[in-house]
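Whether sequence alone determines local backbone shape is best considered at the level of individual chains. Part of our work consisted of pairing the sequence of a single chain with a tokenised description of its backbone. This step matters because it turns folding into a mapping between discrete strings. For completeness, the protein is quoted in full, as a sequence line and a line of structure tokens:

_____
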Amino acid sequence: MGTVTPRSVLRYETWTLQPDREPDAEPVLYAMQCAVDGETSPTSEDFAEPQGWVLRHCGQNPSHHTYREIITRPWRTWRQT
């Protein structure tokens, strides 16, 4: 008898990726980080809160002019049929 070799079946599928806007999706969250000292604002669903933190932080640290926006956005995938 010959050698038995395993066989595989491959199935290619198309998947979609998009921001999760379902009613039960996690909220989009915002924060700001000082690029000078690495301090980060509290995270909030309202961007005005991290923005206020930046204004207070630069007022207390006049040489800190550069900041990073941090956005946490939920995403979802599904298989197209």
User: Anything to note?
Assistant: The first strand starts at residue 15 and ends at 19. The chain is about 15% helix and 25% strand. Residues 38 and 79 are 39 Å apart (CA to CA). The mean pLDDT is 94.
